Amino acid sequence: MKAAKKKHMTSDNKGALLLLTALICVLFTAGTQGLFLDSQNIRNILVAASLNGIIGIGMTFVLITGGIDLSVTGNIIMTSLLISKMMMNGINWGVCLLAAVLIGSVVGIINGVAVGRFGMVAFVVTMAMNLVTTGYGKMFSGGLTLYGFPEIHGIFCKYLFGIIPGPVIMMAIVAVLASIVLRYTNYGRRLYAVGGNSRAAWMSGIKTSRVVIIAYIISGFLCGLGAIMMTSKLMSASSTMISNTEMDAIAAAVLGGTSLSGGVGTVFGTIIGAITIAMITNGLNLMGVSPFAQEICKGIIIFAVVAVDAVQKRRQHEA
Amino acid sequence: MKKLTTLMIIATMALILAACSSGGGAVTTSPAATKGTSAEKAAESGAGTETVGVETARAAEMLKGKKIIYVANECASDWQAVSTEYLKALVNQSGGNCQIFNPENDASKQAQMVEDALVLKPDVLVIKPIDQAAIIPALKKVNEAKIPIILLDTGIIENADVDIFCSIQTDQKSLGQVGAEYVAKLAKEGGYEAKVVTVLGDMSSNIAHNRRDGFNEIADLYDNVTVLAETESKWDPSAAYTAVIDMMTRYPEANTIFCCADCMMSGVVQALNELGRLAPVGDEKHVTIVGIDCDPNGCSYLEQGYVDQEAEHNAALHSDIAYKVIVDYVNGYVVPKTIFFDTTPVTKAELDSSDRWGRLNMANVAEWGVMDQDVYKMQTPEK
Questions:
Q1: Which residues on neighbouring strands pair with residue B101, listed in sequence order?
Q2: Chain B: residue nearest A158 by CA?
Q3: Among the ranges given (A99-103, A167-171, B235-239), the one the predictor scored with the smallest mean pLDDT
Q4: Does the beta-carbon distance from B2 to A315 stay under 8 Å?
Q5: For residue A47, what is the nearest residue in chain B, using CA coordinates?
Q6: Helix (H) or strand (E) holding A283
Q7: Which of B25, B106, B112 sits opposite A289 (nearest CB)?
Q8: Domain shared by B229 and B108, yes or no
Q9: Considering CB atoms only, which of B2, B9, B131 is closest to A304?
């Protein structure tokens, strides 16, 4: 009965998000005299949502366990700077790509072991890791921008058939694979079990620490992928290339129905959340809304959707 | 009940979005209501009433129907606030429409915003790059769209395969050099050795590097100037406060502070106050302070006597030049590829003698009108 209610609750939240997304679409289309739905603008929105979508998927895995990963920005920056230096030093391009996902995953392993094995507080551990990784990246690069990559590295941001941007393809592939893992694998079921009630999961024989560690590794791996995407897009790397990515990723996941207390979340919802956030930023820019008003609007919209989640959760608890 | 709550929230958000779009959009000033433009100055010089009316109309139509997009680096500092609002006011008063995009110092967001801007098909794109290299791919797309690019204040990497219509920049190194020259001069006159602690900006930015390097290059030429310590403060006054406390505690013999930007100056001054070492020029306890920007904060501290000299980094001048370049481009005039200019050192004596941008009333940016400056003169006649 509770599981059915939880599923229903998730569906309701996604329904509200889809309705919100549609409403935003209509409003911005009207406000920009149709420019919002221009084919190039739709591609811009999807590309803008891609990094957040990929990182958001990783964050979803972590949030389902009831944890959090605040190290994504530092992870991406450090990984970007390290692989950039490798490319500039002539190391084989394929090896650099492999290094990116490995470096990202190593950060995930450290986070996962600290949280899952030793029971450290995820918020503090990952925040500390964010500082360490950002600082290491800056130290490694001397605070300078690195550029001068082999041309082939830009391939991830080319258009397939001249229409579909590379980052969107990457996001789609990651989303499909992640969705399969969550819905159709034993690991996915265990992830939800641990997030729903970790003690009950442990008592039923699930190795909860292993489940948590793997979630953080997935998040770290996707940060490595994010680093590849960003360095390909900008053909450079620096410590200012991104900022507050973890907040955007959490917002995307929570907008999409992932619960901050764990046990609930879907990849599809996170992708819709990421696209919604990108739409809001894009639409407000096209409409010429002042930069300060934009921050207020975005904050209020995200706050409102999270409020719905909190109200629903409270009702479920009371029931 | 759940559905009703959801619908109510959605309706509220729709209203908020509608309010944001009506209340926060780019300012479009009716040309008839425009004041403080060059037309009014022409009137003051003796032109007749009819000529004023014609000039007002002409000035108010110089950018009629043109769309300008300014992709800033951020909008939360005095410098950027003036730069964005002043350019917007000048463009809007000339019949154009200027929109400001704010990527909040995130290089990838800035690149994305450049691509978003292309959808609006601007006539000119003005940009202050956050990262000299990261913006290149996005600027290439602007070239493909055949939209002229004006770089403001910061440049891009050398030999980048991007066509820049005009680059308007202050020599960032000179901002640091001027500070070091003044420090050396004061030390020579006072017969002491200047022992300097430096409050740096965000060292991931080229600007911060150039300012520091400029100061250090000149400091190295003088035996009576020694840089004891440097601390990165990321353009943040609270970080600057901590940096000064730590450096002055570590080096109590330090008698000079070089602050790389006035956005951090309040932190520097308050830190000295906390240490009991804040004293105006002339007092024997005075710690020499040289800064950069000469923004309202810097001017205020110059006036109070706590800061000895500012290297002016004029936000309004950059935007005024950008506006004139845009007008000349629109009217078919040839514009130089690079407009590169030095700084002006400003002490308390110079504060009152001329118009410093930091002394202008920031609340009335829309009424400043075009500047009377010698760096770039508009070629398009106003009459």
A1: B71
A2: B137
A3: B235-239
A4: yes
A5: B112
A6: helix A267-286
A7: B25
A8: no
A9: B9
Tokens describing residue B99? 């929109």
Residue B149: is it exposed, middle or buried by C-beta count within 10 angstroms (0-12/13-18/19+)? buried
Record: contact A230-B108, CB cut-off 8 A:
yes
Region label for A67, one of left (φ > 0), alpha (ψ between -120 and 50) or beta (otherwise): beta
Q: Could you say which of B120, B131, B232 has the minimum Cβ distance to residue A145?
A: B131
**Same domain, yes or no: B141 and B190:** no
Closest residue by Cα to residue B367 from B73, B71, B34, B14: B34
Which helix or strand (DSSP H or E) is residue B135 part of?
Answer: none
DSSP assigned state of A262:
S
CATH number for the domain harbouring residue B136: 3.40.50.2300
Q: What span, in angstroms and rounded, lies between the C-alpha atoms of A128 and A130?
A: 5
This model of the complex carries an ipTM of 0.76
Asked if the Cβ–Cβ distance from B203 to A143 is below 8 Å, we say: yes
Distance CA A129, CA B151 (A): 36
Chain B contacts of A290, Cβ < 8 Å?
24-25, 100
Q: Are residues B233 and B293 in the same domain?
A: yes
> B313-345, pLDDT tens digit by residue?
999 999 999 999 999 999 999 999 999 988 989
Beta carbons of A44 and B116 less than 8 Å apart: yes
pLDDT(B363) > 90:
no
Count up the domains in chain A and report the number: 1
Contact between B120 and A315 using a beta-carbon 8 Å cutoff: no
Number of domains observed in the structure of chain B: 2
- The answer to whether position B357 is within a domain reads no
CB B259 within 8 A of CB B291: yes
Q: Tell me which residue in B5, B112, B119 faces A38 most closely, judged by beta carbons.
A: B119
Closest to B116 (Cα-Cα) out of B133, B99, B129, B128:
B99
- Quote the strand ranges of B265-361, DSSP E: 288-293, 309-312, 338-341, 344-346
Min Cα separation A203/chain B (Å): 35
Residues from chain A that touch B113, judged by Cβ atoms under 8 A, are: 285
Same structural domain, B162 and B111: yes
- How high is the pLDDT of residue B25? 35
Distances (CA, A) of B55 to A231, B32, B326, B330, B377: 51, 12, 19, 18, 18
CB contact under 8 Å between A242 and B108, yes or no, is yes
Interface probe for B, chosen from A238, A275, A301 (most Cβ of B below 10 Å), is A238
Which two tokens mark B71?
A: 């992709």
| Inter-chain residue contact A282 with B116, CB threshold 8 Å | yes
CATH number of A235's domain = 1.10.3470
Q: DSSP assignment of B148-168, as one string?
A: -EEEESS---TT-S---SEEE
Residue pLDDT, tens place only, B218-233: 999 999 999 999 998 8
* Set of chain A residues whose Cβ sits within 8 Å of the Cβ of B118: 40
